[in-house]
Amino acid sequence: MHRPIARAVVVLAALLALAGCGEDDEGPSAQDLADARSALNLRPGCDYLTSDDIEAVVGWTGITPVEDESLGIASCRWTKKSGEILSVIAHSDPDSFDQTADSTEVLFGPRIPFDGVGERSLGFFEEGERADAAVLAQSERGLILLTLARTTESKDDALALLGQLADLALGRL
């Protein structure tokens, strides 16, 4: 059973842990989250991709993005009525690529060689009736993780779409 929101939250939590932010028994305060995002030099998640980008590359129209800063990481999510979810997650520590790749592989399937986006990139794909795909890309300014959950796109098409979006988002880090 696919749980795309839970997977995105786990990836966000992993990125937060990589950023050195933890939770106490009561959870992080709003100020702690704001401080964490500020320390990482992250703008709001929806600054990295726009609905116009999503429409131009993926063809989704009329979908309003939802920004999520609940874990102190810049993320933005678009959800279709069919249940497909496209998310962008930004992280400013380029040295966390391998750790982020390990977490992403557990959630989105095996690593797939993926060249041409940023200084370093990987694709991930988990087969299924409603598959999950991800592209992790690195530049000197940080990481971008794009995920497409519960998709009906083929592996090649899903990774190509995410690669185009990752390239756009990396340019805005």
CATH class: Alpha Beta
* Structural classification: alpha+beta
Overall mean pLDDT stands at 79
CATH topology: Protein Transport Mog1p, Chain A
The total number of structural domains is 1
H and E string: HHHEEEHEEEEH
Largest sheet geometry: 7 strands, antiparallel
Envelope shape = globular
Helix content: 25-40%
Number of helices: 5
- Indicate the radius of gyration in whole angstroms: 15 Å
CATH architecture: 3-Layer(aba) Sandwich
Plain-language structure description:
The chain has helices at 4-18, 30-39, 51-58, 97-108, 155-170; strands at 66-68, 74-79, 85-91, 111-113, 120-126, 131-139, 142-151. The protein starts with a helix and ends with a helix. α1 (4-18) runs antiparallel to α4 and α3 (51-58) runs antiparallel to α5. It is of the alpha+beta class. It has five helices and seven strands, in the order αααβββαββββα. It has one domain (4-170): 3-Layer(aba) Sandwich (Protein Transport Mog1p, Chain A), CATH 3.40.1000. Strands 1-2-3-7-6-5-4 form a seven-stranded antiparallel beta sheet, sandwiched between helices. Residues 1-25 have low confidence and may be disordered.
